[in-house]
Specification:
Chain lengths: 113, 111
C-alpha cells in the first residue's frame, strides 16, 4: 500500500540556520513526490515536485528537496531559514500510473527570530 | 494562475442536516479532488473525479457523496451531517504537470 511518513510533528530552527523537514515514502511503482506548504488559515500551496531526472529538485521560496531512491526519502531543505517560512509542510506521493495522492500527516515548522 | 474557489470559508450546521460544499475551478482540468484535513491525520481523500459524471471513492467516503455535472464544478454532499464530520474540507484540481492546486478550504462545524 502507498504511504507517506513525516516522522517529526514539529521542527524548530533559528532564523538563518539551515532547515530540513523529513519525508519517507512507500509506493509500488515509480513515485511522483511533492511538497506543499500551508500558511495559517490558507489552503495548501505547491512548493516542488520530483517526477524524474535529477535527484535534487528546486522549488519556490528557495526550497529544495533530494530524492533518495535507496532510502525512499524526499527530505525538504533550505540553506537559510526565514521567519516567514514558519508554516505547516506536507509531503505527498502519487503512485504511477495511478490517480490518487497520499499525504503525510504534516510537519509544523517554526523559525525562531 | 489556476484558481480554485470554495463556496464558504466557514460553515456551522446542525446534526442531521444535509450539507453541500461546492468547488469551482477555472482551468478546464479534468481531475478534481475532495479532502478533509484533521490535526495529526494530514489530508485524507474522500472522493475524486476524473471527468464529468465520473467519481471514485477515496480512503474515507463513508457519509459523503459527490456530484460533478459540469467540468468546472465538483460538489461534496454530507447526506446527514454528524459531529465527527467537523473538519477542514479542501478541494483541489491537478495540472498536466501533476501539481495539485487547492482551494482556500471550508471549515465545517457540526453541532
Amino acid at each position: 500500500a502507498q504511504s507517506v511518513a513525516q516522522p517529526e510533528d514539529q521542527v524548530n530552527v533559528a532564523e538563518g540556520n539551515p532547515l530540513t523537514v523529513k519525508c519517507t515514502y512507500s509506493v509500488s511503482g515509480n513515485p511522483y513526490l511533492f511538497w506543499y506548504v500551508q500558511y495559517p488559515n490558507r489552503g495548501l500551496q505547491f512548493l516542488l515536485k520530483y517526477i524524474t531526472g535529477d535527484n535534487l529538485v528546486k522549488g519556490s521560496y528557495g526550497f529544495e528537496a533530494e530524492f533518495n531512491k535507496s532510502q525512499t526519502s524526499f527530505h525538504l531543505k533550505k540553506p537559510s531559514a526565514l521567519v516567514s517560512d514558519s508554516a505547516l509542510y506536507f509531503c505527498a506521493v502519487r503512485d504511477d500510473p495511478g490517480n490518487q495522492f497520499y499525504f503525510g500527516t504534516g510537519t509544523s515548522l517554526t523559525v525562531i527570530p | 494562475d489556476v484558481k480554485v474557489t470554495q463556496s464558504s470559508r466557514y460553515l456551522v450546521k446542525r446534526t442531521g442536516e444535509k450539507v453541500f460544499l461546492e468547488c469551482v475551478q477555472d482551468m478546464d482540468h479534468e481531475n478534481m479532488f475532495w479532502y478533509r484535513q484533521d490535526p495529526g491525520l494530514g489530508l485524507r481523500l474522500i472522493y475524486f473525479s476524473y471527468d464529468v459524471k465520473m467519481k471514485e471513492k477515496g480512503d474515507i467516503p463513508e457519509g459523503y457523496s459527490v456530484s460533478r455535472e459540469k467540468k468546472e464544478r465538483f460538489s461534496l454532499i454530507l447526506e446527514s451531517a454528524s459531529t465527527n464530520q467537523t473538519s477542514m474540507y479542501l478541494c483541489a484540481t491537478i495540472t498536466w504537470g501533476n501539481e495539485q492546486y487547492f482551494g482556500p478550504g471550508t471549515r465545517l462545524t457540526v453541532t
